Amino acid sequence: MAIRVGPTRHALEDLELRLLLEGIYQHYGYDFREYARASLRRRVWRRLLEEGLETISALQDRLLHDPQCFERLLVDLSVTVTTMFRDPSFYQALREKVVPLLRTYPFVRVWNAGCSTGEETFSLAILLHEEGLGERARIYATDINDVVVRQAKLGTFSLEKMREYTQNYIRSGGKASFSDYYKVYGDKARFDPSLVDNVVFAQHNLVSDSEFNQFHLIVCRNVMIYFDRSLQDKVHDLFHRSLVRFGVLALGHKESLRFTSHTDDYEEVDGREKLWRRIS
Ligand SMILES: C[S@@+](CC[C@H](N)C(=O)[O-])C[C@H]1O[C@@H](n2cnc3c(N)ncnc32)[C@H](O)[C@@H]1O
Q: What's the gap in Å between 85 CA and the centre of ligand 1?
């Protein structure tokens, strides 16, 4: 009997990748099926080479039987690169254009979705503190990756980053001396724990978990660049349901609300800094 030769090598690899993602979803409940393919493929390949394997199918076999291998892949798949006061002009716009809106509320709820190791959360906490909103604001800082959420809670960052972060802070319109916010322990800078007295750190998956509160500001920067269009739409549905009317959505510089199903539900607060206000 002649065996029908199936897909080309490239199509076969694509099939293996789809099966791997389906397997991960079915077995571990993590849904990467609609993440942007190019970056996902690169990361899967990096993991399989580090595991000393040759095919995605071999990686699937190992992953399904070895939860620690899955943990390693999870770290590879969640790109956690972040900095304090990343894109200073964004924080400047937040101070000048969004803080006045937040002041109109007696109590402010902020969702920092995809907070990674907490640099963004501490930046937001410092900004709110300096704008006199620290006491009446609560930040919910969430990420899919439990490891980074635990790290975020510690508020401990590498000392060698402080020069860059200080520059960012100054350029973002910081009002104090940045070094007042942390103490140095060896090669680490530990930020004042009172900054995050009003922060709730939790694991939350934007793909599979539902809304959990109504927010006046949602900051979700440099997360959706890793999602394909239909997944971005789903997350925008979630954010739309989670924002109060006139609440503000902040995205990363390379992200946009344009071409999503919610374009008309928002008005621009600052187009360059990707700040929008929900109007319907
Ligand atoms: C590149 S970091 C961005 C960190 C920070 N927002 C910033 O702009 O500096 C992307 C973060 O999104 C998180 N992430 C990826 N997929 C997610 C999901 N489905 N739900 C929640 N967080 C997710 C990753 O774990 C990672 O910490």
A: 16
